[in-house]
Amino acid sequence: MTKKYQWLVLVLAAILFVGLITNSIFPNKAPNLKVSSTTGEAMMIYDKNYKFTIINFWATDCPGCIREMPNLADTYNKYKNQGIQIIAISMSYDPPNQVLNFIKKNNIPFPVVIDADNKIAQHFENIRLTPTSILINQKGQIIDQIVGEIDFNKLENILSKNI
Description:
Layout: H1 3-25, E1 34-36, E2 42-44, E3 52-58, H2 63-79, E4 84-90, H3 96-106, E5 112-114, H4 119-123, E6 132-137, E7 142-147, H5 152-162
Parallel strand pairs: 3-4, 4-5
Antiparallel strand pairs: 1-2, 3-6, 6-7
């Protein structure tokens, strides 16, 4: 291999290494999506006016989702005046009438978005199971993705560090 090609391989390896390091140090950014809630309220998935955002992908036929909704509501009510945003996003296979009935029956206090065409879930790439919660800091960085029910003690610790 000539010196010219050795140099090129070295430069490409350095670029690749820096890219890998950057991706592991700096979290993924939340998509900049505008969505509408079931009440018609327009909002951004990431809004820098909030100190912390929880995006919760859920379904009305998901036992874990149903179990964690009261705790999500409690968390929202506890922190809503401290800059927390919670958005529940129902999965595309969830019938809208069931979602609306669930919201009403359970007095869900935070916005719920129906992802009828699955476009929101696609922006987060790995949403395959419910519940899945995405935790986003004020800089728009995804700091955690929780597949399964949220451990609310751990969430309290995360919130105390971010708000």
